[in-house]
Amino acid sequence: MAARAGGAPGTATFTEQARRQQLVDCTIELISTRGYPATSLAAIAERAGISKAAVLYHFSSKDNLTQAALSHVLAEFTAYVRERVDRASEPPAAVVAYVRAMIGYQQANRRHVRVITEMLLDDHGGTRLKTPGQHGTGNRLQELADLLAAGQRAGCFRDFDPGTVALAIGGAIDSVVSHWLAHPTYDLDAAADELETFTLDAITHRDR
Predict the structure, then answer these.
(1) What is the reported pTM?
(2) 40-46 contact pairs (CB < 8 A, 24+)
(3) d(C-alpha 167, C-alpha 117), whole Å
(4) Which H helix or E strand runs over 142?
(5) Tell me, what DSSP letter sits at residue 124?
(6) d(CA 130, CA 179)
(7) What are all long-range contacts of 162-165, with beta carbons under 8 Å and residues at least 24 apart?
(8) Which of 36, 54, 76, 191 makes an SS bond possible with 118, Cβ 3.0 to 4.6 Å?
(9) How far is 113 from 119, CA to CA, in rounded Å?
(10) What's the distance, CA 36 to chain centroid?
């Protein structure tokens, strides 16, 4: 059976698309419970109830399949955040919605968070990026920078470099969530409240 090179979704039949989605779901489940190194093609095939050759028909390698799983997770994450930001009527509310959604999604989807960290972080304590500069995966920091710049143009925010401040806010979100993952009793809801205040204090006009 010839392997599809990554499996082009646009040319797949309905049945093939359903099988591909099943394999992505199995991969997410395995990475989130066993970790990336232990998620082999054989394990995915076993979980899906098909042969390894059948897996390779849809995805030509473990890397293609795990990247598809990561892309699926990031797409759902991005859609969740964007939907909530789009509901906001004013720039400050949009930035708050972004912060809340970033934390809220990860709080409700620990499996997806594990996939992201397993795929993007190295194996030395889960603190270093495999590829420097991946903090902005899914274009999330650029979207935040755009929200901040829009608020500046509307006169809602003080003068600052949107890219730098987006990095700072994004880093704060990542740190809070990372701490919660390591310490499950940490009050993430209270942390989200503090981070909202922290963000607004950092970007709004300051009294002279």
Answers:
(1) 0.81
(2) 41/65
(3) 18
(4) helix 140-153
(5) S
(6) 20
(7) 165/202, 165/203
(8) 36
(9) 10
(10) 16
Cβ pair 24, 69 in contact under 8 A: yes
Q: What phi, psi does 140 have (nearest 5°)?
A: -65, -40
User: Per-residue confidence of the chain (208 residues) as pLDDT tens digits?
Assistant: 444 444 444 567 888 899 999 999 999 999 999 999 999 999 999 999 999 999 999 999 999 999 999 999 999 999 999 999 999 999 999 999 999 999 999 999 999 999 998 887 655 444 444 443 344 555 778 999 999 999 999 999 999 999 999 999 999 999 999 899 889 999 999 999 999 999 999 999 876 4
Which backbone phi and psi does 40 adopt, to 5 degrees?
-95, 165
Contact assessment for residue 66 and residue 39, using Cβ atoms and an 8 Å cutoff = yes
Place of tokens 């989605």: 21
CA distances from 153 to 93, 157, 159 (A): 15, 8, 10
Residue carrying structure tokens 């992505």:
24
